[in-house]
Design brief:
The chain is α+β, with helices and mostly antiparallel strands and 285 residues long. It has twelve helices and 14 strands. Helix 10 runs antiparallel to helix 11 and helix 11 packs antiparallel against helix 12. The structure holds flavin-adenine dinucleotide. The site of flavin-adenine dinucleotide has 32 residues, from strand 2, helix 2, helix 7 and strand 10.
């Protein structure tokens, strides 16, 4: 299958990319292309032009001093191989291990994954559970968007068409923090039928100080399982408290069904994977 005709631009800077996007409202950013190009070949997307960010080297940096900062064009493979990043946020490497295949890992980018907001993507839920945010640059300058406000709906974000995500920031975990991401993988596509990321931090009193649970695959966009989170905070972390909280993980979520997995089945999977992810995170404390 062939995409419809498009112009191709390869800017050398973010400012140039923004100008190109501003000049053509139907242009789209090209990052790894592993979501956009299939959509174009299926004619689900027909941009008039592609603005390819691959030559902007400044978008491929990883910094782990203080808060973690990852350039939007950093590929999954580069994140997987960054040993200093693994020390601080091992969940990223664990997630990428479960994501797609070698080709997808070599080309797909963190910024592209977040900007695409695919309902079955993995890193959306993980960055949500890590309380991450993105820096977006547009014609009016730069702004920071918490990912909780970035994902709006199915394949829809709060980015303007002429805004470029340049960087993803993740607060450095404080104190005793455990984190895990587990997913029920679709046997054909490898995407998450349901995926759950859990990040738990103990307070000074030994009880749960903070708990964040990101859910993907089940709803139209990655969501926090806030009812389950609230059930954990301020209490001792025990097998019983984890089981009770996990049983609430689908509460308040508008769960979708399809021909592969009904809404009821996905609801069940959310509770099962929440329990497993919480147990795995708790095991690190
Ligand atoms: C066979 C296959 C299996 C896959 N399996 C998985 C899986 O298991 N889990 C998973 O999570 N994903 C999976 N993916 C998707 C993959 O992770 C994509 O790479 C990702 O969704 C998009 O990243 P990208 O860099 O390829 O973005 P692109 O495809 O280039 O772009 C995606 C969208 O984001 C926009 N965009 C990209 N970068 C930016 C930016 N910096 N600022 C603003 N907008 C931007 C583009 O304009 C486009 O609309 C799979 C893909 C394939 C082909």
């Amino acid at each position: 299958m062939f995409p419809s005709q498009f112009a191709y631009h390869r800017p050398a800077s973010v400012d140039e990319a923004v100008k190109l996007l501003q000049q053509d409202p139907d242009a789209k950013i090209l990052a790894g292309g592993h979501s956009l190009l299939p959509a174009m070949k299926l004619r689900l997307a027909a941009p008039s032009a592609l603005v390819d960010l691959n030559r902007i080297d400044s978008l491929r940096q990883i910094a782990v001093n203080g808060n973690v900062r990852i350039g939007a064009m950093t590929t999954y493979e580069q994140i997987y191989e960054a040993d200093d990043l693994k020390q601080v946020l091992p969940i990223l490497k664990e997630t990428i291990y479960q994501l797609g295949d070698r080709q997808v890992q070599a080309r797909g980018t963190l910024g592209g994954s977040l900007a695409h907001s695919d309902p079955g993507a993995d890193l959306t839920a993980v960055v949500l559970a890590l309380d991450g945010s993105v820096t977006a640059v547009g014609p009016n300058g730069q702004r920071t968007i918490p990912v909780s406000e970035l994902f709006v709906d199915l394949l829809t974000t709060s980015l303007a068409p002429d805004e470029v995500i340049t960087e993803v920031q993740i607060p450095r975990p404080q104190g005793k923090t455990g984190m895990a991401y587990l997913k029920h993988r679709h046997p054909a596509s490898g995407y998450a039928v349901v995926g759950v990321a859990a990040v738990i931090t103990l307070g000074d009193d030994g009880n749960v100080g903070a708990a964040r649970i990101g859910v993907t695959g089940a709803t139209s966009k990655a969501e926090r399982a806030s009812v389950a989170e609230e059930a954990l905070v301020g209490k001792p972390l025990t097998a019983d408290s984890i089981a009770s909280a996990a049983a609430l993980a689908a509460d308040g979520l508008d769960i979708n069904g399809d021909h592969y997995a009904s809404a009821d089945y996905r609801r069940h999977l959310v509770t099962v994977y929440a329990k497993r992810a919480l147990e795995q995170a708790a095991g690190q404390l």
